[in-house]
Specification:
Elements: E1 2-3, E2 15-16, H1 39-54, H2 57-76
Antiparallel strand pairs: 1-2
């Protein structure tokens, strides 16, 4: 999964996260990034992750997402052509 943009709160950075079958393929240093690894970018990443944790942004995103999902489900119940409302849990 490639990551960029918001990972460092606007500071240019890039990252690649792998797992599963790809886990054994990539080793540290195998995957280059134009904006990865420099001290400013890494400070931006740490600050962004700390802020997300300290301000409970994941829990808030889950609350807002559930409110949106349930609101859509209620508004679209019985509408022809709508068979399900999907959400990432």
């Amino acid at each position: 999964m490639p990551l960029a943009k918001g990972l460092a709160g606007g500071v240019p950075v890039g990252a690649c996260v792998v797992g599963g079958r790809a886990r054994g393929i990539f080793k540290p240093g195998n995957h280059g990034s134009t904006f990865g690894g420099n001290p400013l970018a890494m400070c931006g990443v740490v600050t962004t992750l700390d802020t997300m944790k300290d301000e409970g942004l994941l829990a808030n995103a889950q609350r807002v997402g559930e409110a949106m999902r349930s609101g859509l489900a209620a508004s679209l119940a019985g509408v022809a052509g709508v068979s399900e409302i999907r959400a990432w849990a």
